[in-house]
Design goal:
The protein is of the alpha+beta class. It has a single domain, classed as Alpha-Beta Plaits, CATH 3.30.70.120. The chain has helices at residues 26-36, 79-88, 90-93; strands at residues 2-16, 20-21, 24-25, 41-46, 49-50, 58-59, 70-77, 97-109. It starts with a strand and ends with a strand. This is DUF190 domain-containing protein.
């Protein structure tokens, strides 16, 4: 197996853990749709602290504020496929922050 660096893109979606879409966690629906679209992979991370437009800090350090914690969904794939995913799922992504960045992925290729 030959390993090499491959150009790809990273789609980063920032939202709150209690953001919902049709009564389900929005991050879950994003991952489900990414899988259904055949994208290479998606992961979800829960933050320990953050703030948004309101500038109100949400943190796990204070029990009464341990809600609305930040969540990050990361999807890696080809740039064109990620752009198409965002356009196709605009209804799901309309109220969250979406960023697309170039990345290099260390990939294994069989010969």
């Amino acid at each position: 197996m030959v390993r090499r660096w491959v150009s790809a893109s990273r789609l980063t979606v920032l939202l709150g853990e209690d953001d919902t879409y049709r009564h389900r966690p929005r991050y879950h629906e994003i991952v489900r749709r990414a899988r259904d679209a055949g994208l290479a992979g998606a992961s979800v991370w829960r933050g320990v602290e953050g703030y948004g437009v309101s500038s109100h800090i949400h943190t796990t350090r204070l029990l009464d504020l341990a809600e609305r914690l930040p969540v990050l969904v990361m999807i890696i794939d080809d740039t064109a496929r990620l752009r198409a995913f965002v356009e196709t799922n605009a209804d799901l992504l309309d109220s969250v922050i979406v960023a697309l960045s170039p990345v290099e992925v260390f990939d294994g290729v069989r010969h």
